[in-house]
């Protein structure tokens, strides 16, 4: 259910939102979501019921900085920070979704990739994350994204990638094989990946992909009633389970747990861009 974003009447602003029940049902049937912990948003208009557990503290996520892997303009009005795992099948699907979103919105949005290899599920993911950081340090931001695109293209997911292919993928991204091998075998970026995982644990995120949308302007909770409805629908279907969305007005951040389709991501972005 990775639906294509479409423009209505030549504008990105959508006046009619998808019915929440249809979105929830479609995503669940497609099996495209790992439900991680979602924060129970403040206030009655955003709550998902008394049984919804508290979760990620998106407001305290570290700010995007020069060391981050950024695709798109750093001056974008909306930045999407994704915590991802190279061996996660939902992340593989969602990677294409995010590329489509970036193409559609152009300079209005930027995409940040952060490491969250879940070693308990994917034993190869940590090494792949370290490999991507080696590529970034040796070849720069563009090389990182070329490596990331390629690894998601070729991996079958769920520990299906042959790790002996990593030097080939690094070369494909424009990095010298010998330098890459020295970096990876020496564990040069083991600490980089470990630090990213530590932040994920501090925030209370427990699944991938997890996306934090950051707006440069203040967030009006009224624009996110559709997310409240989605949370309520989910809470009704899965009482006691963490809900997928959090809206933090003060920090201008929206958290999203799962590989949702492009239409819904577009609604979130449109709400953040709304004048």
Report helical residue fraction. Answer: 40-55%
Side-by-side strand order of the widest sheet: 1-3-2-4-6-5
Shape: globular
Poorly predicted runs: 1-22, 25-52
Largest sheet: 6 strands, mixed
Q: So what's the CATH class? A: Alpha Beta
Structural class by helix and strand composition: alpha+beta
Radius of gyration: 18 Å
What average pLDDT do the residues reach?
A: 84
Please name the fourth-level CATH homologous superfamily. Glutaredoxin
How many structural domains does the protein architecture include? 1
Per DSSP E runs of 2 or more residues, the count of β-strands stands at 6
Reported by name, the CATH topology is Glutaredoxin
Give me the CATH architecture, please: 3-Layer(aba) Sandwich
N-to-C CA distance: 30 Å
| Number of helices, where a helix is a run of at least 4 consecutive DSSP H or I residues | 9
- Helix and strand element order: HEEHEHHHHHEHEEH
Sheet-strand content, in percent, reads: 5-15%
Element layout with pairings:
Elements lengths: L19 H11 L38 E4 L5 E7 L4 H17 L3 E7 L9 H15 L1 H14 L11 H7 L4 H9 L4 H14 L6 E6 L9 H13 L7 E4 L4 E5 L4 H12 L2
Parallel strand pairs: 2-3
Antiparallel strand pairs: 1-3, 2-4, 4-6, 5-6
Helix pairs in contact: 1-8, 3-4, 3-6, 4-5
Structural overview:
The protein has a single domain, classed as Glutaredoxin (3-Layer(aba) Sandwich). By secondary structure, it is an alpha+beta fold. The N terminus is likely disordered. 41% of the residues lie in helices and 12% in strands. Helix 3 packs antiparallel against helix 4, helix 3 crosses helix 6 and helix 4 packs across helix 5. Helix 2 links the parallel strand 2 and strand 3.
């Amino acid at each position: 259910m990775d639906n294509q974003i479409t423009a209505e009447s030549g504008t990105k602003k959508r006046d009619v939102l998808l019915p929440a029940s249809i979105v929830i049902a479609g995503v669940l049937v497609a099996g495209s979501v790992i439900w991680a912990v979602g924060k129970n948003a403040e206030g009655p208009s955003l709550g998902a019921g008394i049984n919804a557990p508290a979760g990620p503290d998106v407001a305290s996520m570290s700010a995007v900085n020069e060391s981050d892997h950024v695709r798109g303009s750093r001056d974008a009005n909306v930045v999407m920070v994704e915590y991802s795992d190279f061996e996660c099948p939902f992340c593989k699907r969602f990677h294409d979704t995010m590329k489509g979103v970036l193409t559609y919105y152009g300079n209005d949005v930027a995409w940040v990739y952060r490491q969250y290899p879940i070693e308990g599920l994917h034993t190869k993911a940590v090494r792949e994350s370290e490999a991507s950081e080696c590529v970034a340090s040796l070849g720069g931001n563009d090389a990182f994204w070329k490596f990331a695109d390629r690894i998601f293209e070729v991996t079958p997911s769920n520990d299906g990638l042959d790790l002996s292919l990593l030097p080939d993928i690094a070369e494909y991204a424009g990095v010298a094989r010998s330098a890459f091998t020295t970096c990876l075998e020496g564990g040069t970026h083991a600490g980089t990946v470990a630090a990213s995982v530590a932040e994920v644990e501090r925030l209370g995120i427990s699944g991938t992909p997890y996306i934090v949308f950051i707006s440069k302007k203040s967030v009006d909770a009224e624009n996110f009633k559709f997310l409240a409805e989605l949370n309520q629908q989910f809470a009704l279907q899965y009482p006691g389970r963490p809900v997928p969305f959090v809206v933090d007005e003060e920090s201008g951040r929206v958290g999203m747990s799962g590989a949702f389709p492009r239409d819904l991501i577009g609604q979130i972005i449109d709400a953040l861009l709304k004048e």
